[in-house]
Specification:
Binding site for ADP: 21-25, 154, 185-187, 211, 213-215
GO molecular function, one term: fructose-6-phosphate binding
Largest sheet: 7 strands, mixed
Number of strands: 11
CATH class of the largest domain: Alpha Beta
Shape: elongated
Active site: 127 (proton acceptor)
Structural class: alpha/beta
Subcellular location: Cytoplasm
Bound molecules: adenosine-5'-diphosphate
Binding site for ATP: 11, 72-73, 102-105
CATH architecture of the largest domain: 3-Layer(aba) Sandwich
Number of helices: 11
Strand content: 15-25%
Helix content: 40-55%
CATH topology of the largest domain: Rossmann fold
Strand order of the largest sheet: 3-2-1-4-5-10-11
Number of domains: 2
Length: 319
């Protein structure tokens, strides 16, 4: 393989730029030509593709977002859209593509691979919801953003007797909520993977109040439902003064953490190695601190599992 392409797709995540940088530099190190595709699959179909040089990725390792931009495209979900994308790449002589994104983006990469165009998926999403990797690029940064935000809420909370419901991202996965719950010492963590009755959450709040607790923090994963609704129910049920914070998109932004930069560098580099070996249809990841790769269809057929031992621990530590 002499020419490869790289794109970012779906929801952006801090550390995507560090991954793009690693792909470009690793490819050039091995004397490959590397092309950046702008605006995800949308730009791929339109031929919005530019050759990248060493300098193209200078000064981006610390930047959030993605310099290649991201987009969502319905046309690309069709056979005709995918064929158009392959033709654009063949015109330039690109022989393999690295897709940095989440599971939706990997479905696109799987389709291209099935059509004879080798792709590698690099998990870039704050949700940590991709099977076959302990961490996705962006998760650690988003977690730290939540931890800092909840610390600030706790500062003001100590002055009032209040219950705080904090809604965090994660789509259908509870990882961000669970990790933040442990890191922030929340009274309750509510995640989609584990049903917890409303009565048990309320019971815990009341017991805390009886013990003289000044405030309580409940971290709710967005996959469970609306924080605002949940806060209303709590207030109705307990008559406690309740406040809701929906952290929203601040969780997607910001400079990537040291961990995310290193993870992105390792995974980006591995994806180039795979294409150089003529391998496509894989998703890279890290398991027990070792860089691994798995079959893309297998990754897409599995369901990410939250660590239930950590969930138990969060409950044990918040009695
Ligand atoms: P993420 O990668 O963050 O999960 P999306 O689910 O929005 O984000 O997917 C990003 C893009 O990937 C979509 O806009 C679409 O172009 C492409 N994609 C998603 N699902 C498929 C699919 N089943 N087949 C082909 N392309 C897909």
């Amino acid at each position: 393989m002499k020419k490869i392409g790289v794109l970012t797709s779906g929801g952006d995540a801090p550390g995507m730029n560090a991954a793009v940088r690693a792909v470009v530099r690793k490819a050039i190190y091995h004397e490959l030509e590397v092309y950046g595709v702008y605006n995800g699959y949308e730009g791929l179909m339109e031929g919005n593709i530019k050759k990248m040089e060493l300098g193209s990725v200078g000064d981006i390792i610390q930047r959030g977002g993605t310099i290649l931009y991201s987009a969502r495209s319905n046309e690309f979900k069709t056979d005709a859209g995918q064929q158009k994308a392959i033709e654009q790449m063949r015109k330039i002589g690109i022989e393999g593509l690295i897709v940095i994104g989440g599971d939706g983006s990997f479905r696109g990469a799987e389709k291209l691979t099935q059509k004879g165009f080798p792709c590698i998926g690099v998990p870039g999403t704050i949700d940590n919801d991709i099977p076959g990797t302990d961490y996705t690029i962006g998760f650690d940064t988003a977690l730290n953003t939540i931890v800092n935000a909840v610390d600030k809420i706790r500062d003001t909370a100590t002055s009032h007797e209040r219950t705080y419901v904090i809604e965090v991202m994660g789509r259908d996965a509870g990882d961000l909520a669970l990790w933040a719950g442990l890191a922030n010492g929340a009274e309750s963590v509510i995640i989609p993977e584990q049903e917890e009755s409303f009565e048990s959450v309320v019971g815990k709040l009341k017991r805390g109040q009886e013990r003289g607790k000044k405030h309580s923090i409940i971290i709710l994963a967005e996959g469970v439902g609306s924080g605002v609704e949940y806060g209303k129910r709590i207030e109705e049920e307990t008559s406690m003064d309740t406040r809701v914070t929906v952290l929203g998109h601040i969780q997607r932004g910001g400079s990537p953490s040291g961990y995310d930069r290193v993870l992105a560098s390792r995974l980006g580099a591995k994806s180039v190695d795979l294409l150089m070996d003529g391998v496509g249809g894989r998703v890279v990841g890290v398991e027990n601190n070792i860089v691994v790769d798995h079959d893309i269809s297998k990754v897409l057929s599995e369901k990410h599992a939250v660590n239930m031992n950590m969930y138990k621990l969060a409950n044990q530590l918040s009695i």
